[in-house]
Automatic annotation (TrEMBL):
Alphabetical list of InterPro entries matching this protein: Homeodomain-like_sf, HTH-type_TetR-like_transc_reg, HTH_TetR, Tet_transcr_reg_TetR-rel_C_sf, TetR_SbtR-like_C
Domain HTH tetR-type positions: 14-72
Phylogenetic lineage: Bacteria, Bacillati, Actinomycetota, Actinomycetes, Pseudonocardiales
Keywords linked to the UniProt accession: DNA-binding, Transcription, Transcription regulation
DNA-binding region per Swiss-Prot/TrEMBL record: 35-54
Protein name in UniProt: TetR family transcriptional regulator
Pfam family, one: TetR_C_43
Molecular function GO terms recorded: DNA-binding transcription factor activity; transcription cis-regulatory region binding
Length: 191
């Protein structure tokens, strides 16, 4: 095998992996129990290719979750650039995070094992760093008072992945976000 052939195969394998993860993300959002054959079909690969990359359903679920979180944590600057208001960027970013977490909850046991907990723990620092960028922008804009801990804000915003995934839940989420921003306009209380 020539070096060029090997490089071409690696690029194709990397493209297949991304296609599988993106198909899994879409299909798991619709139905957490979707057959893996459907994921392979949507990705445009054979079952053997899917299983070469992800030997078990749990491996695929973890791969899709990791990909989603990595993608989200790197988008804080992009979301801020897209909005004229840091507050609007903050809200969009957290709504996207909540959609990912709703999918995660629908995947049940696959995200409760040791490997999943390690992955979730590893995603905490980049998630907190992304939230810090959003909070800093909101502080500069005047929609959040200085001094709030990004980790506290993540915990506070966790209501978003508990509201119903329908119009009533979206309306409830908007009301609660407004209440959160009202509270964040005051400096944090010291312990």
């Amino acid at each position: 095998m020539t070096e060029g052939t090997y490089g071409t195969q690696r690029k194709a394998a990397a493209r297949n992996r991304v296609a599988i993860i993106e198909a899994a993300h879409e299909l798991f959002a619709q139905n957490p129990q979707v057959p893996l054959s459907e994921v392979a079909k949507r990705a445009g690969v054979g079952a053997g290719t899917l299983y070469r990359h992800f030997p078990t359903r749990e491996d695929l679920i973890l791969g899709a979750y990791q990909h989603d979180i990595e993608r989200l944590t790197t988008t804080a600057d992009e979301v801020l650039a897209r909005h004229s208001s840091a507050k609007a960027a903050f809200i969009e970013w957290f709504e996207t995070l909540s959609a990912y977490i709703r999918i995660k909850h629908g995947l049940g046991d696959a995200l409760h094992g040791a490997a999943a907990q390690e992955l979730i723990s590893a995603s905490w620092a980049p998630t907190t760093a992304a939230v810090k960028k959003l909070v800093d922008a909101c502080v500069a804009e005047g929609t959040i008072a200085p001094g709030h801990d990004p980790a506290d804000i993540i915990m506070l915003m966790s209501f978003l992945w508990r509201v119903a995934n329908n119009e009533d839940g979206a309306a409830q989420g908007r009301r609660l976000i407004a209440a959160v921003f009202e509270g964040l306009q005051s400096p944090p209380r010291s312990s």
